Amino acid sequence: MKDATVHLEKGLVCAPIGALTSLTSGNSNTGVTSPPINDQGPIIDCVLTPWSQWTPCSRSCGSARKERRREIKLNAQNGGKACPKRLVQRRKCKDNPDCDQLPVDCKMGSWGEWSTCSKTCDGQGFRFRQRSISVNASNGGIACGPQFNREICENFRPCY
Questions:
Q1: Any idea what the CATH number is for the domain that residue 144 is in?
Q2: At residue 29, does pLDDT exceed 60?
Q3: Of 22, 78, 80, 109, which is the most buried if we count CB atoms within 10 A?
């Protein structure tokens, strides 16, 4: 098979016309040799797709793996070279940081309801609301925003 050219198109095996016109090996008129043949027909080796790209690591920190795959395009026929059993390669992700060294961003709860205005009459007062911290920032993560919020409220009703 080393002197024959085999092309794959949509799962079909195609050979040059010269290889089909002469089934004797080494036709001196054309310089074309046919693929090796046994009792069942032409011997065809397994054909595989190229390896895929490596997947991202299974975790962003700590022990993780990545993998790549390939598929069988054409199984071996008539005693040709068999396809490999392993079509998946796996590797450890060596550059992953330790999980306890990753930055952790602050997470905050929702704002609570506004309080009543501090002034019930005669002018300007304030009202407040607050929220809790669910997760504190660590290892350089994004810091928490304010826990308390204040705004001006006005009450023009006269006091008696």
A1: 2.20.100.10
A2: no
A3: 80
